[in-house]
Structures are given as C-alpha cells and as structure tokens.
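Hi V.,

Quick status before I head out on leave. The structure for the redesign project is tokenized and pasted below; the design run finished overnight.
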C-alpha cells in the first residue's frame, strides 16, 4: 500500500514523468496530444492510463490519430462534441439525412426515421454482418430534431422529475440524436444488453464505426446512466482509437478531439 501511494505521488508530482508515454510520438502529434489531454475533463488516474496505453504503441496511436484527423477534416460534425456541457444550436439540422425506410437488412420499429448518409451506410453493413450470424438489428430511434427533443425531454420531466429526466434523456440541443448519427436499438431497456442483438453489438459495433455512448459504470463521466441500446456512429478509425487508447470511453475521445486545434 505504501509503495502504491509513493508511486502515485511521484507520478503526479512530476509532469515530465507523467507524460513519458507520449515521448515516442512524432513531435507535432506529441504537442497536440499533450495539450488536448490536459484540456479534456479526464481524471488523473484515467489520464495516466491513457498515456500509458499510448506509450505502449506510439506508432499505432500516431497512425490512428492522423486517420481520425482526416475524418474530422472531411466531416467535422461526425466527431463533434455534444453533451451536457456543449449544446448544438436549435437550428442545427444535418444536411445529408436519408430515410431508413426501404429494403434494408435491419428492421425499423416505425416508419419515417432518418440518419445521416454515412451512418446509414455503416448501419447497413453492420446489419448485414449481424444477419449473417443470425442476429436482427431493430432500429427504434434515430435522428431527432431539436423540437422533437423538446417534447421528449418535457414528457420525461413531467413523468419522473427533472433530476431523473436528465439521467435518462438529454435536454434539447444536448442530444446526440440531433447529430443524425445516434441510434437506439431494440427495446431501449436494460434487458437489451442481454439479448442476442445487444451482445452482438457490444462485441462488433466498433468494427463498423459505432460506439456505445454511455457505458456501464461511467455515469459520472458521461452524465447518463448506462444505455446498452444507444450507439453513435463515429467512423471505424475513431472507434479503433477509442477502443485502443481511450479506455473504450467515447466521452474521453470526443473531449480529446474537441480540444485539438480544429483542422
Ligand atoms: Zn439514444
């Protein structure tokens, strides 16, 4: 126990030691990563773990970092920060929304839902792969406009009070669904995580660029209770960066990227 305390104390008292894991990065990436890691709201322990992961595979990090940077340059909204601290404007509407209706390998729970084109394309690939393994992906909610979120949130506040409503739903402007890249699958209940589709998504969604936004045990970081059904499309490159270096926590990755100089 004593040695643990000494180690932690020594690490946090010396910035050079703390950032040692970043030293093998190319200088341009190292400077950006260092700044962004300090700016993002990541606790010291988790920041230390992230830096340690980067240190284990600096060249792998550099490759993914550059790829994700390219994704952001081409499509800034794909990795845009939207959470309880950063809201979208009320008039933000994605320009490339497409209908989910039609002959696709997924099932929709109702007609008229939409997603951004790159998110639907990835959903189609993912649903095909799921179907090949005998799993059916059911889309229960997709793009939600600012005005629709006003209705959803007001109804939740009325039913459960403001504090609980904020744990389970986003105030208008703060929902990832307004980005047109978030999907709620299946029953939208905790049981979904234990269904065949829920388990399949948990194991495979990242390969198709989808990321579980509000993981179990991370409410203090994300601001939301665990939602086994809510995935956001962030691109396969960003999903890999999140998985390999950001402890699987999308909030960390997004805050890190938002703190970089914007391309
Ligand atoms: Zn959702």
């Amino acid at each position: 126990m004593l040695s643990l305390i000494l180690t932690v104390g020594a690490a946090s008292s010396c910035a050079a030691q703390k950032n040692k894991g970043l030293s093998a990065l190319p200088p341009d990436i190292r400077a950006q990563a260092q700044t962004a890691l300090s700016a993002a709201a990541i606790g010291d322990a988790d920041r230390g773990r992230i830096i340690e992961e980067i240190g284990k595979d600096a060249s792998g990090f550099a490759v993914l970092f550059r790829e994700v940077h390219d994704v952001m340059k081409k499509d800034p909204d794909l990795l845009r920060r939207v959470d309880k601290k950063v809201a979208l404007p009320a008039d933000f509407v994605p320009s490339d929304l497409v209908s989910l209706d039609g002959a696709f390998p997924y099932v929709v729970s109702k007609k008229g839902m939409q997603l951004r084109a790159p998110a639907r394309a990835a959903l189609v690939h993912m649903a095909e792969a799921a179907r090949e393994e005998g799993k059916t992906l059911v889309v229960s909610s997709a793009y939600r406009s600012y005005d629709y979120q006003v209705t959803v949130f007001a109804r939740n506040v009325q039913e459960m009070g403001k504090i609980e409503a904020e744990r389970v739903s986003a105030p208008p402007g703060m929902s990832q669904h307004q980005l047109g890249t978030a999907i709620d699958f299946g029953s939208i209940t905790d049981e979904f995580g234990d269904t065949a589709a829920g388990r399949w998504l948990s194991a495979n969604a990242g390969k198709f660029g989808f990321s579980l936004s509000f993981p179990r045990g991370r409410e203090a970081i994300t601001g939301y209770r665990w939602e086994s059904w809510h995935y956001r499309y962030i691109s396969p490159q960003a999903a890999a960066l999140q998985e390999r270096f950001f402890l699987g926590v999308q909030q960390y990755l997004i805050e890190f990227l938002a703190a970089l100089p914007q391309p």
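Above is the designed sequence. Residues 1-13 have pLDDT under 50 and may be disordered.

G. will cover questions while I'm gone.

Best,
W.
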